[in-house]
Design a protein that fits this description.
Strand order of the largest sheet: 3-2-4-7-1-8-11-10-9
Oligomer: single chain
Number of helices: 12
Radius of gyration: 20 Å
Helix content: 25-40%
Structural class: alpha/beta
Order of helices and strands: EHEHEHEHHHHEEEEHEHHHHEE
Largest sheet: 9 strands, mixed
């Protein structure tokens, strides 16, 4: 089918999703995890790699999409290497959807892989406390303002402004672990309590160890395709209904309000473009490098009012049997977090809508499968956000 014969705007679906081996993967390279995830996603879609004419990749190599494409044996005519931290993949999904809808590509593969845990264990890298001291960072680095300290400051501000408690933040970690218990791919599945979260070693006040994401190895892939390819796919399509992106700041002094994340904008745009409301969403996948990220993103997406996140999360609403099942695979706090985890959110959202989440499958009150999901990624220290609304049917 020629580009000229296509309609002006095509519908776009997620047609393939997959994880690579995850958790503790000591004998693979990041490139191998990319390839493994890509092969599995194509197999999930029931399509050959010859259909892939677009590639989105970030985080690996000097020329990320070019090197990954060569390793995968692809020669894409559309590429994206947008790198905005944890929100990278939701932003890339938005870009890819627009490209496919406009006829500039037919099938775009989003793929990621990292051996962050194995590299540290083998001494190939060390833990990084900051992103360097060049550019705007030069005004903060001399004061020892680490990455986690930025999140901790924001959490403390929310506690000061709205009375959010440590117990409420800890409940986010507890519920993530409870969801992970039903996920065989999760790195940590044993239950934890609020008291255990609070009693852990302090990392950056107010965050103890269990307030922070785990460090794992792993990768995943998502294949997006134009509507005319859906009939040839092996899996049920999950449609991209709307997406939004937004950047906020990089220097903390330029952040207008520590209690408002860029998801307040990306979420509003995504819901408006999808023609749905937050209350219509059945399942949410939210970037959770720290417990506060989940809480404030829920507020900014409109699931509760500003300052009401603490009360919202402490009632068990985030459990897969709760009012708003959130991070149903266990999230970055318990399942896996090899680095820029945003692509994992899209994989889990698609699996939930398809009914392929196994013991962790969410059901609506009437027993039916969820119809709508939102995936919202956050990058940097609330510097960027990408939000994607997906629908079944």
């Amino acid at each position: 089918m020629s580009t000229a014969s296509r309609s002006a705007r095509r519908k776009v679906a997620v047609v393939g999703v997959a994880l690579s081996d995850c958790g503790r993967v000591d004998e693979a390279t990041p490139y191998a995890l990319h390839a493994q995830a890509a092969r599995r996603a194509l197999a999930d879609a029931g399509l050959g790699r010859d259909v892939v004419d677009g590639l989105a990749s970030a985080g690996l190599g000097t020329l990320a999409p070019v090197e990954v494409a060569e390793y995968l044996g692809l020669r894409p005519r559309w590429v994206d290497s947008t790198s905005v931290g944890g929100s990278t993949w939701e932003v890339m999904a938005a870009h890819a959807t627009e490209a496919i809808a406009a006829g500039r590509a037919n099938a775009v593969l989003l793929v990621y892989g990292s051996t962050a845990r194995a590299d540290i264990k083998a001494g190939r890298r060390t833990s990084n406390l900051s992103f360097g001291a060049r550019g705007p960072a030069q005004f903060e680095a001399p004061y020892g303002h680490t990455l986690i300290a930025k999140y901790a400051m924001a959490a403390r501000r929310h506690m000061h402004e709205y009375g959010t408690t440590l117990e409420q933040l800890a409940s986010v970690a507890v519920q993530a672990r409870a969801n992970a218990a039903a996920n065989p791919d999760a790195m940590f599945r044993d239950p934890i309590t609020v008291d255990e979260v609070l009693a852990g070693p302090m990392i950056a006040d107010p965050f103890t160890k269990l307030h922070c994401c785990i460090r794992s190895d792993g990768g995943c892939a998502v294949l997006l395709a134009a509507e005319e390819y859906v009939a040839d796919c092996a899996s049920q399509p999950v449609w991209v209904l709307g997406a939004g992106e937004h950047v906020s700041h990089t220097t903390m002094s330029e952040w207008d309000d520590f209690t408002v994340s860029p998801a307040a904008v990306s979420g509003r745009l995504a819901f408006e473009r999808a023609g749905v409301r937050p209350q219509d969403i059945d399942v949410a996948q939210i970037y959770d490098a720290f417990t506060y990220m989940t809480l404030v993103t829920l507020e900014d997406l409109g699931f509760c009012g500003k300052g009401e996140g603490g009360a919202f999360v402490e009632q068990g609403r985030l459990l897969r049997t709760g009012g708003l099942p959130t991070n149903t695979d266990g999230g970055g706090l318990s399942a896996q977090h090899p680095g820029m985890r945003g692509l994992f959110l899209l994989v889990e959202a698609a699996r939930q809508l398809r009914g392929q989440a196994g013991e962790g499958q969410v059901r609506r009150p009437d027993g039916t499968l969820p119809e709508l999901a939102v995936a919202s990624g956050t990058g940097g220290w609330f510097c960027s956000s990408g939000t994607v609304v997906l629908g079944r049917g």
